[in-house]
Design goal:
It is built from 3 helices and 2 strands; from the N terminus they run H-E-E-H-H. The protein is elongated, with a radius of gyration of 20 Å.
């Protein structure tokens, strides 16, 4: 999961320029350049991760859950 987040967050963090204010507020200084990245993000990796997670759930957890329900219903 950490690699997934790193791969999806790093491109954004390299594009955004910001200033930190006194109370921890962050002000994006190149909003016009970074806006498109957040408005039209490439969510391919997010979708692949979601599909893999759903597949693993269906393949690994569901059969055991069905057996449990059949036995104790």
């Amino acid at each position: 999961m950490t690699k997934f987040l790193k791969n999806t967050q790093d491109p954004l963090m390299h594009r955004i320029q910001y200033d930190k204010k006194g109370q921890g507020e962050i002000i994006v200084t190149n909003l016009s350049e970074a806006e498109g990245y957040s408005r039209y993000p490439d969510l391919t990796e997010h979708c692949i991760y979601l599909i893999r997670t759903l597949y693993a759930t269906l393949e690994e957890a569901t059969p055991g859950e069905l057996i449990f329900l059949q036995r104790y219903h």
